[in-house]
Amino acid sequence: MTEKIIINSELDVLKARIAGKKMAAAIGFGEIALAEIEIVISELGTNIVKHANARGEIVFNALTDGNARGIEIIAADQGPGIKDIDEMMTDGRSTTGTLGIGLSGVKRLTDEFYLQSAEGSVTILRVRKWMMSDYRSQIRYSVLSKPKSGERVSGDACFFKHLPSVAVFSVIDALGHGFHAHEAAVQAISVLENSYHRTLYEIVERCHKKLRNTRGCAAAFGRIDFKTLKFQHISVGNVETRVYSTPAQLRPACTNGIIGTIIENIRVEEYPYNKGACIVMFSDGISGKFELDGAMLRKTPQEISDFIFSNYAKNHDDATVLVLK
User: Fold this and answer.
1) Per-residue model confidence (pLDDT) at position 236
2) Rounded to whole angstroms, how far apart are CA atoms 167 and 324?
3) Number of domains in the chain
4) How far apart are CA 70 and CA 64, in angstroms?
5) Same domain, 149 and 116
6) Is residue 251 located within the same domain as residue 280?
7) What's the pTM?
8) Pair 196, 68 in one domain
């Protein structure tokens, strides 16, 4: 199911809102999701109209991915392009200077976000929203994190993105503590938010480039493909990962280096993924002396993370543990 609306005026934006909402309702989205989809369409359509001499279009596609259903919205225009995508993704900014939700708001209201643009070129924005009830049950997660005792902010950070076919996740541990470490961790997370659809190798390369003017970080990155049942992993520095409930417990290797300063010989490791496996990813603020027995592995991610954090988090360091199951 596909529908295209040519956008030249605010009336066309209204037509697009009606068409998109009708398709989303037919797919099965509920009232709240329909309202969010309308907001996204309105923002994208208004951005096209506000560009001087710009002609654009919005295309709607009904999606299926296994048992998951969703809608894809593609907005394209012939406007002046976006000179600085990172700046435009900042909260409160809009490509048109309007008081709309901006591209950062569009991203928050959707599950997948792809933007291609440059100054003086065509801008293409593709977003996808999925029916949460169709796939959210595939994997659950829990994160516990705290800064070093006496610090107000942490140099640790965590990322998790769940899509119908894949889950992408990471634990970041910036060097040192306090504000500057926190700033480096935030920049790493911003790369993940804009690049989670890329390969793990590309994500690490982008983080390395982004963090060159910071103190850098250690980090582990994971990707589960639910179709091929593969688990991919990269770790740079001292962020560890353990995988339980497999024929043999996995402890993927950590590559020496600092993202943003020096990384060498990084490679993506790939392992079989067994449904129900428990993945634990943690910064060095968590002692690696913990063990998870069969009884603990039958508990929820929240209970497992609480056990690890309560018994093995260090007070003299930022500490973060992510548990997926």
Assistant:
1) 96
2) 10
3) 2
4) 6
5) no
6) yes
7) 0.79
8) no
Task: Outline where DSSP puts E strands in 203-318.
Answer: 217-225, 230-236, 240-244, 257-258, 262-263, 269-272, 278-282
Helix (H) or strand (E) holding 212: none
Tell whether 168 and 32 lie within a shared domain: no
Top pLDDT among 93 and 181 is at: 181
| pLDDT tens string 76-90 | 887 665 544 455 545
Q: Which of 137, 133, 178, 132 is nearest to 154 (CA)?
A: 178
Domain residues for the domain of 66 are: 2-134
Q: Which amino acid is at 247?
A: P
Q: In terms of domains, do 316 and 182 share one? A: yes
Residues 151 and 113 in one domain: no
Is it the case that residue 190 has pLDDT exceeding 70? yes
pLDDT in tens, 88-126: 545 444 444 444 567 888 888 998 888 776 555 577 889
Query: What CATH number does residue 73 fall under?
Result: 3.30.565.10
Q: How far lies 162's CA from each of 135, 158, 191, 268, in Å?
A: 9, 14, 16, 20
146 and 69, same structural domain? no
Crossing angle of the two packed helices 31-50 and 102-109, in degrees rounded to 10: 150
**149 & 164 share domain:** yes
What is the Cα 310 distance to its own chain's centre?
27
Task: Identify the pLDDT of residue 80.
Answer: 60
